[in-house]
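Need the bound structure for flavin mononucleotide, inputs here:
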Amino acid sequence: MRLNDDRKEYVAGSLDDSALFSDPWSLFGAWLEEYRATGVADATAFALSTVGPLGQPDARIVLLKDVQDGSLIFYTNYASKKGHDLAANPYAHALFFWPSLERQMRISGKVEKVDSAMSDAYFHSRPLGSQRGAIASAQSQPISGRPALELQFEAAETIAATELQRPAHWGGYAIRAERMEFWQGRPSRMHDRIAFTHTESGWSAVRLQP
Ligand SMILES: Cc1cc2nc3c(=O)[nH]c(=O)nc-3n(C[C@H](O)[C@H](O)[C@H](O)COP(=O)(O)O)c2cc1C
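Answer from helper R.:
Posting the output first, comments after.
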C-alpha cells in the first residue's frame, strides 16, 4: 500500500480572528448544523476517548444526543469498557471530524452521569428495538457466539412494550467542556486553529499555529 502521495489542499473555509471573541458554543452549534445540513449519515458522531485505570487511552464512536448547560450529552451502558474507564477517571475527550467542511472539533472536560429522569426520558424516546437491544446487551462483555446474543434479544422481545424499563446500568453522560478547539483546514497547511479554555471568568481564546 502506497499512501505517501495521497494529499489534498484545504480550501473550504477560514476562521478569522473575530472568532476569538465569539461564544464557543454558538460557533460549535453553527458548525454542527452546517455539517448536519450536508445530509451526511451519523453527522453527530464523535470519537470519545477515555483513559483506563492504568493510564491506557481508548477511543470509540458514540452519537451526540444533546448539548445542555455547556455539556455534550451521550448515552451508553455504564458497565461497558468506557463506563469503567469513566468510573476510574472521569475525564473524556470528544473528537468530531467533519471532512466535507474540512473541519475538526476537539472538546474535553470532566464527565458526570446525567440524572435518571433524563436517562429515562431519552431511553423511552428510542425505538422499541433499541430499548430491547440495550436491555439484551451486556455491552463490552464477551459472549460465546451470535446465537447466544440472539437468545438474549429474544428474551428482551418477550417484554411487553408497556413494561420496558431502562436498565439501571444504561444512561447518559455529560462531558462538561473545559477546552474547545476549532480547526479549519487552509491551503499550504496554514490551517486556522482557535482554542477556548474555560476559566472562572468565562471563556478565553487563543489562536494556535497549525
Ligand atoms: C456510528 C456509530 C455510533 C455509535 N453510537 C454509540 C452510542 O451512542 N453509544 C454507545 O454506547 N455506543 C455507540 N457505538 C458503539 C461504540 O463505538 C462502541 O462499540 C461501544 O460503545 C462499546 O465501547 P466500549 O467497549 O469502549 O465501552 C456507536 C458506533 C458507531 C460506529
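Comments: The helical segments are 24-36, 81-88, 116-125, 128-136, 146-157. The pocket of flavin mononucleotide is lined by residues 42, 45, 58, 60-63, 74-76, 80-82, 139-140 (CB under 6 Å).
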